[in-house]
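Researcher: I'm preparing a figure for a lab meeting and need a structural model of a single chain. I don't have an experimental structure, so a prediction will have to do for now. The sequence is pasted below. Please return the structure as tokens so I can convert it later.
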Amino acid sequence: MLLSITNQIDNKKLLAAFVSDRLHDSDVNVRYDARRSMYYLFKNNPDVFDAKDRLGYLRQYAYFLKYSHSKALREDLYFMAQMIAKDYVDKENLNLFNDALQTIRKEYETYEMTEEYKADIAHNACVLAGVLSQKLEHITSGAHAWKEFYEDSEQFRDVRNGYEEGIRMCKQQ
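Model: Understood. Here is the structure written out token by token.
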């Protein structure tokens, strides 16, 4: 729905605000569509976002990642990993995601959801940590916590593979 009208709205800033308001909608299909539209805007219309707007969206996302205990967290972690891997996020803003990764690592085992969702969250947190390990000169404490998770042989291998997936995402771009 949103992606189909992305090129039809002349005022891209208005569209970006409209899409941003739907990034955390309660409907999973609306959230998915909003993420795809935001990704499209960052990729094809980067001039829509001045530095202040871009930082505002990133802060909003980092805040959501840090405090959300929702099932949507798994999708949002992967979305941010994609955005960062493709260099749609300025390097000076990458540290915004450190606290979020650190908080998720400390708390994700207490999330009240099925083990399947928690495993997906852990996998995608590892993906984001792997991406950040490639994009930052020095790995942050939040990314390092997930790197330690990745190195823990007690964890499921398919979950831990997320860290390697994040590294590959950066190399493929």
